Every structure is written in C-alpha cells, then in structure tokens.
Amino acid sequence: MTTQQQPRPYVPTKTLDTPYPLIDNDPHLRRVIRYARPSDYLAGTAFGVAAPGMMLLWERIAPSHVGKGGFPPIMRLAGTIGLIGGFLYCCERSTMRFYGFRENKREIDMDMREMVDKVKKGEPLYGTSSLSPHMQGVASRNSRYSGVWLHVIPWFNLVNHEQHGVDTAKYYQQAERELEAEKTKS
C-alpha cells in the first residue's frame, strides 16, 4: 500500500515592523561580509582589540606574577576570544541592516544592483544549491532572523535558497526598465 504525500503549502515568512526596509531576513554569510561597511569593520576591530587590551591593562594594574611562561597563553586566549568576538560583532552590525533594524540605504542600493545584474545575466538570484527544496526550507527556517541572537548563538546562513522574505519581482521589474532604457539609447 502506498501513501501519497501532499505538497506542503508555502507559508510566507513573518515580516517585522522595522524602521527601515527589509532587504533579506536570511542573508548568506558571504553577503553579510560583502555588504559590511568600513564602520562595521572598525567596530569589530575595536571590539576585538578590547579583550587582549584589557588583559594588558589588568596586568599593569594588578600583576598576576604567574612567571615567565604564564602570561603568553592567556594573551593568546584573549586574542582568540577578541578575534572571534570582533568578527561576530562586525557580522551582527551588518546583519541588522539586512533586517531593517538600522539605516540601510547603501545596502538597498547594493542589493538592487547585485540582483538586477544577476537577472540580466540569467543567473538565479540567490545562487544554486545541491540540497532538495525541502532541506533548503529547513535550512531557511533554522537560520531566519538568527542574526538577532548572534551574540548568544553564532548561527549563520550557509545555504543558498529562495526563501528570503522579500518580493523578488522588484528586481525583475528594475532589470526590464534598465533593458528598455538601454534599447532606447541604441
């Protein structure tokens, strides 16, 4: 006896009321890093330098007297923690712009340009994936809005999928307008 599985209906993602427009509610890690502003990198660097800097300051204020080989391992650990923390802070600042929690005019323009160029080339907007559509949906549901809790659980979207919470018709419409403008110039 065989049972037939019914296709599951597509349920659109919840959209939050944010002060700025939503660009992507599940941005891929590569896009988060590519769209990061210099101020994000600067803030991440400052955050990353703080951990070993504080260790040096504390050692000057209240020396630990651990001996010759005791302090370098602590500094390596503090440097590693600072490096990871700075990277996460940089990513979190960039991700908040994708969600519309922070001012994102620059990212909106970059997103439109990137997606329109992909439409003109005939490429998939969000890349290709070797996963089945079901597994892409699972990956999307597991990482959607994960940047809000990045300081608690570092969880990134590493899967290309089509579920990003935005209407992609705007990219196709803009590409049509640009192609029409190019035709009229010729």
Structural class: mainly alpha
Count every helix, treating DSSP H or I runs of 4 or more residues as helices: 6
Percent of sequence in beta strands: under 5%
Mean pLDDT across all amino acids: 91
How do the helices and strands follow one another from N- to C-terminus?
HHHHHH
Largest sheet: none
Shape: elongated
Instruction: State the end-to-end distance.
Output: 63 Å
Cα gyration radius (Å): 22 Å
Unreliable segments of 5+ consecutive residues: none
Tally of extended strands? 0
Helix percent reads 55-70%
Structure description:
With 186 residues, the protein is mainly α. The protein is 56% helix and 0% strand. The protein contains 6 helices and no strands. It has helices at 29-35, 38-61, 71-99, 105-121, 133-143, 169-185. α1 crosses α3, α2 packs antiparallel against α3 and α4 packs across α6 (169-185). The chain is elongated.
Question: What is the fold's blueprint, element by element?
Answer:
Elements: H1 29-35, H2 38-61, H3 71-99, H4 105-121, H5 133-143, H6 169-185
Helix pairs in contact: 1-3, 2-3, 4-6
Features:
0% strand, mainly alpha, 186 residues, elongated, 6 helices
Quick description:
By secondary structure, this protein is mainly alpha-helical. Helices cover 56% and strands 0% of the residues.
